[in-house]
Amino acid sequence: MTLFAVDVLARLRLASLRQGLELRLTAPPELCELIAFVGLEEALCVEPRRQPEQREEPLGVEEERELLDPSG
Fold first, then answer.
1. What is the distance between the alpha carbons of residues 28 and 18, in angstroms, rounded to a whole number?
2. For the segment 10-37, what is each residue's pLDDT rounded down to a tens digit?
3. Which of 45, 49, 70, 72 has a 20 to 30 Å separation from 15 between CA atoms?
4. How many CB atoms lie within 10 A of CB 56?
5. Does 56 score more than 80 pLDDT?
């Protein structure tokens, strides 16, 4: 990511505010760090991209039997 991207985002934010709109961004961690480094994290309202939730482990089979087993 470059400072050019931060400049473009800042200009978009300013233009949206002038139009009475709200611009919210979700960005990768690298861009969030760069925005924080230049001191624009509050002005740009950037939220870090969330990590996908880990899926639960599949449930194991407790008992195996034949489909035509009359005992169960």
1. 26
2. 999 999 999 999 888 888 888 888 988 9
3. 49
4. 6
5. no
